[in-house]
Amino acid sequence: MISLILNRIARVVVHIILLFSIFMLFKGHNEPGGGFIAGLMAAVAIVLIYITYDLKTVKKLMPVSYPAMIALGLFFAAGTGLGGVMLGYPFLTQTFDYFHIPLIGEIELATALSFDIGVFLVVVGATLLIISTLGEGSK
Amino acid sequence: MTSNLVVYPILIPLVAAIIQLFFAKNTYVQRALGVISSALVLVVVVYLYQLVRIEGIQVYEMGNWYAPFGIVIVADLLACFMLFLSALASLAMSAYSLADIDKDREKFFHFPLFQLLLMGINGAFLTGDIFNLFVMYEVMLMASYVLLSHGSEARQLRGSLHYVMINLFGSTFFLFGVGLLYGITGTLNMADIAVAVQTADPETQSMLTAISMMFFVVFGVKTALVPLFFWMPDAYPQPPVATAAMFAAIMTKVGVYSITRTFTLMFPGDEFTLTVIKVVAVSSMLIGVLGAIAQTNFRRLLAFHSVSQVGFMVLGVGFFTPMGLAGSIYFVMHHSMIKSSLFLCSGIAERLTGNRDIKKMGGIIEGHPFYSALFLVAAFSLAGLPPFSGFFAKLILLFAGAESQEYIYIAAILVGGFLTLFSMVKIWQLAYWGKREPKFNTVNVGSFVWGIIILVGMSIVLAIMVQPVYDMVHEAAEQLLDPSQYIEAVLTKGSQ
Questions:
Q1: Which residue of B has its CA nearest to A93?
Q2: Record: contact B7-A94, CB cut-off 8 A
Q3: Which of A46, B178, B279, B372 has its Cα between 20 and 30 A from that of B56?
Q4: DSSP code of B262?
Q5: CB of A10 within 8 A of CB of A94?
């Protein structure tokens, strides 16, 4: 049974949550926000889909394996640290620079961002893995 | 700039775990990576030890933030010894798991979890920041929670629930302690804390002693010292043998390491703390071994022994002399090899007889003389009979006790050793000698013994090379008793 009210609201709200989570992800390293909280938000959006519809819909929308998502996230995060090692700096050394991107203008990009993206993926993957495991029950 | 070598013992298992996660379906790749990563860490640690001996304590600034603002990774001689042990044990366990771990556990990420456990352990040995120590403990504990309850057999869950509860309690206390310490000293860097504690005014001194005791309680929980040991005999018999052996070999030693580090660097022992440490150590020495005598479950018996043996190591710290600390480090090395090989032996015995109770085993020596001999060497070594490493470990502690004229503790060491021998002989008589039980399972013992051979072999090397090894641990002990070396290495680095 799909609730009509929930269905209508979820269709709108999910997009807003996802957008806001990406916003949080990008402003993370200098201001409140970051990969962890953004990941939780994105996971909440997906959980909302799960509550409104069911697990099958979630799996259809996101046909990825969650463990692989966690692995990819860890890879990004650890890779950011290892990048510093390759260039002869200590592990996890971060740097930043300003870039000019057409339409958006001058923005600051830091290597911490790729670390945050890694954290984001890990958090989303782990949350969804937990929820889908609990949701599937003991089959 | 320091070489990156210092951080590799943490990074290699992390990277291995990530790659293993990508090969979720392909367990062959996971197995191979597990062995390779442990072997690599071992090689790195040997190089690192050379480096520390030649150039002194190695300090590594994570993310290029210098101490006391950033997190530092510090490798001194003690840390190198501990890293060596964890790498050795993980290599032996990886070799053993190749034959031991069942398909289900393999499919559900046993090997990546094992690597993450190794990462947490190595991180705890290397970190120079008390909060980071807490984090590394959590990394290690998270992995151990899963490894312990992996498979979800009913009795396994019962044991692991105890374990999770007691460790959550311990971690909470740890956090309180760190918070209080930060409130007083205003820093989390261990070297910086040491300076702040030295220069603290007498009024805060009592508060600092209270905090140091809080840490002692926390680490006592993790090491399973009396009176906080009761989770251990429940938890260790349940998981797969290789996991239990890894826990016995290294997890308890992380607690011993933390006690050593805390009471040599941050709170160099005063009369009160040292007396508390020694009394706790002696009571776990005796109560643990008495508990072991009463058991007939092979692994429960060994777990009670761990409680007792940890007492010996902590007693060495309590003596607070170079010889006492050297004895403690030597004991840690001996115990992590021997106790884990005994656990692996118990695993083979369980497979052969299909039983966990030594009363229902019997006659294993018939048909498996080589494996039984390995057990005998390990058992006698644990009991401290002369040609083996356990003898020298206890001997150094006895000398240390005699040196500081603490005769009661000497008596306790001797009684503890004697009772250990008694319980080991009990296993030998009931499980290995005697009439052979008719329905033995056929097990290809050859595929299991490699891990045991590595460990027992190393312990024999430890016994033969006792003089050079003693010189090495003595050097480490002297470094520990002179915390100014550590402090200087950490704090002067940033100003350069």
A1: B63
A2: no
A3: B178
A4: I
A5: no
pLDDT at A54 over 90: no
Mean pLDDT of B205-234: 88
Q: Is this complex scored with an ipTM above 0.95? A: no
Tokens matching residue B60: 């590594």
User: Which residues of A are less than 8 Å from B1 in CB distance?
Assistant: 88, 90
What's the CA angle centered on B196, arms B194 and B198, to 5 degrees?
A: 70
Taking CB atoms and an 8 Å limit, are B24 and A93 in contact across chains? no
Asked if B4 and A65 come within 8 Å (Cβ–Cβ), the reply is no
- Report yes or no on B243 lying in a domain: no
Cβ contact B22–A68 (<8 Å): yes
Contact call for B11 and A74, based on CB within 8 A: no
Task: Give me the half-sphere count of Cα atoms (radius 13 Å) on the Cβ side of residue B211.
Answer: 22
Interval B191-200: pLDDT, tens: 999 999 988 8
**Residue to substitute from B18, B111, B139, interface A, most A β-carbons within 10 A:** B18
Q: What is the mean pLDDT of residues B177-192?
A: 92
Q: Do B21 and A92 touch (CB under 8 A)?
A: no
Q: What was the pLDDT predicted at B446?
A: 74
- Region for B199 from its dihedrals, namely left if φ exceeds 0, alpha if ψ lies in -120 to 50, beta otherwise: alpha
Number of CB pairs, chain A paired with chain B, less than 8 A apart: 52
What is the rounded (10 degree) CA torsion for B180, B183, B189, B192? -120
In a domain, B425, yes or no: yes
- Over the stretch B372-421, which tens digit does the pLDDT of each residue have? 899 999 999 998 888 899 999 999 999 999 998 889 999 999 999 999 99
Q: Identify whether B423 is part of a domain.
A: yes
Specify the number of domains making up chain B: 1
Give me the pLDDT at residue B193, please. Answer: 92
Choose between B109 and B392: higher pLDDT: B392
**Short-list B294, B406, B398, B343, CA closest to B89:** B343
pLDDT at B438: 67
Residue of B nearest to A122 (CA): B18
- Percentage of chain B exceeding pLDDT 90: 48
Closest CA to B151 of B232, B240, B233, B231: B240
d(CA A120, CA A42): 9
Residue/partner pairs of A1-10 with CB below 8 Å, 24 or more apart: A2/A52, A2/A53, A3/A52, A6/A51, A6/A52, A7/A52, A10/A48, A10/A49, A10/A51, A10/A52
Interface test with A, best of B1, B2, B3, B4 (most A CBs within 10 A): B4
Report residue B105 as tokens. 């556990």
Strand partners, B349: none
Tell me: pLDDT of B125 over 60. yes
Could you say which of A65, A68, A90 has the minimum Cβ distance to residue B60? A90
CA distance A133 to chain B (A): 13
**Once rounded to an integer, what is the mean pLDDT over residues B56-69?**
83
Q: Which of B14, B61, B109 sits opposite A78 (nearest CB)?
A: B14
Residue B437: which domain range?
Answer: 269-464
Look at residue B111 and tell me if it is in a domain. Answer: no
